[in-house]
Amino acid sequence: MTEAVPSYLSPTGQEIVFLLLGVLAVGSALLVVTTRQLVHAALWLVVCFGALAGCYLVLTAEFVAWVQVLIYVGAVVVLLLFGIMLTRAPIGRAADLDSGNRAAAAIVALATAAVLVTVVVDGFRTAYAPLDPGRGSAEELGAGIFRTWVLPFEALSVLLLAALVGAIVISRTDIRGRD
C-alpha cells in the first residue's frame, strides 16, 4: 500500500501554525532592518527569534527551541543591548544612518527573494516530510555537538568571549594604552 501525500489545498493545523509563525518571523525580520531606532531593532529581533523558536516547537524539536530562546533571545539580544549602551550609540532616530539606497536595496532584495522562492518551490514541489517526534531530542543533538562538532563549538565560544572583551575595551574611554 502506498500512503497518500497530503494536498497543499488542505493544510493541517500544524502547517497553518508553522506558516503563521513563519510570516511573523519574516515580518519582524523586515522590521529589524527597516526601523530607524536601534533599540526597536533589537526588540523586533526578539520577536523574530521567538517566532523561530515556535517554528522549532511545531517541528517537534523542543530542545532546539529552548536553546533558541535561552541563547539567542536571552544572550545575544541582551549582549546587543549592552553593546548599544556601552558604546553610547544613539538610541533615538538618526538621520545619518540612512544611505539613500533604499530603492536599489529593495529591488535587489525582491529579486533575491524571488530567485530563492523559485528554487525552493521547484526543488521541493513533490517532497513531503511528515512531522515525526524525536529528531530534535537532546540526546541526538548532544551526541552530534560533543562528538562531531566539539572543536568548532569551543572555537566559537572563545571567539565570542574575545568579541565581548574587545567591545568592552573599545567602549571604555578611561583605559589608556602604554605610550
From TrEMBL:
What does the record give as the reaction this protein catalyses? a quinone + NADH + 5 H(+)(in) = a quinol + NAD(+) + 4 H(+)(out)
Q: Which organism is it from?
A: Planomonospora corallina
Q: What does this protein do?
A: NDH-1 shuttles electrons from NADH, via FMN and iron-sulfur (Fe-S) centers, to quinones in the respiratory chain. Couples the redox reaction to proton translocation (for every two electrons transferred, four hydrogen ions are translocated across the cytoplasmic membrane), and thus conserves the redox energy in a proton gradient.
Q: What is this protein called?
A: NADH-quinone oxidoreductase subunit J
Q: Which UniProt keywords apply?
A: Cell membrane, Membrane, NAD, Quinone, Transmembrane, Transmembrane helix
- Cellular location of this protein? Cell membrane
Q: What is its EC number?
A: 7.1.1.-
Organism domain of life: Bacteria
* Listed Pfam families: Oxidored_q3
Topology in the lipid bilayer:
Multi-pass membrane protein
Q: Which family does it belong to?
A: Belongs to the complex I subunit 6 family.
Transmembrane segment boundaries: 16-34, 41-59, 65-86, 107-129, 149-170
